[in-house]
What does this fold into?
Amino acid sequence: MSSSSSDNTNSLQSVVDGIQKQDVNPFGSEPHKGYVPNPELKSLRTFQGDMQEHIEVKKETVATIAIAEQKKKIEHNEPTYTEPEVRAKKPGGGGSLFVIFGILALIVGGVILGAMYFLQTETDTTLGSSVEKTLISYTDKKEVALSTLNAQALATSLLQEKATYQAAANSVLYTKFSQGGTVILNTTLFQTIAINAGDALKRNIEDGMVGVYSFDTTELFFVLKPDDFGIVYSGMLDWESALGSDMSLFFPLLQKHLESNPSVFTDETYKNKDVRVIRNENGAIILLYGFIDKDTLVITANERVFEAILNRYLQSKLSH
It folds into this structure.
């Protein structure tokens, strides 16, 4: 039995050796690449071998083979896959695309936000340059041209604006004056109005605002900004002897009162602010001045207008 098995094995080996001797390159005498002499068993036929045979013997390329395979699948209604679909199925391929698109989205979003911020900043700057900063906010603004700059001309123009200003309650008309096409500074206006005020007081008013306040009544007002609180406070007390006379051009009831009464000021308090007032024979206030704070002085002829100006001033402070 063992002799027979040995004979069979030798016979099979001789067959294999014979086949290997014949498996040579048909285009030359050299053996095929990868040839192993006297293998124990011949390698199984594989798909790789089929492809190699198609390429080497039939002279077909990988591309033509792939096209043929696709065509065959279409004829048999088999599902096919395009190159993008195959690429998307590769591990990590889809994730990489999402990462790239995410980065691009962040970059584009950053550019858009930056442009919006820049445009908003430019808009705010443009608006800020066109709106004049004043001691209190206003709802309306008007420029009045004067042919002559003096207290009487200013008073006449302001009283005309007061008579014609028709606006809702709590509205403010800010008046600017010009002469010969040149805007008159607010400090110059105060020096023109305060005819009998001391020089120290005039020099220490660094800004001002003149206008009409529409409240439960319509009244003129003056808001002044002191440079030195101590000097201005003392200067106002010194000016009291002539303050009524200088202000009477702007407040008709005060002018009528002073025709037969002296200019007498008394201390009062409104909204926790100390003020100095003149009252007429009926007890009504016809002139008032007081400091809202050390940086703001108000002169008007009505305590309700003073309180309204105070409220507007405080609101503007809170908003900033």
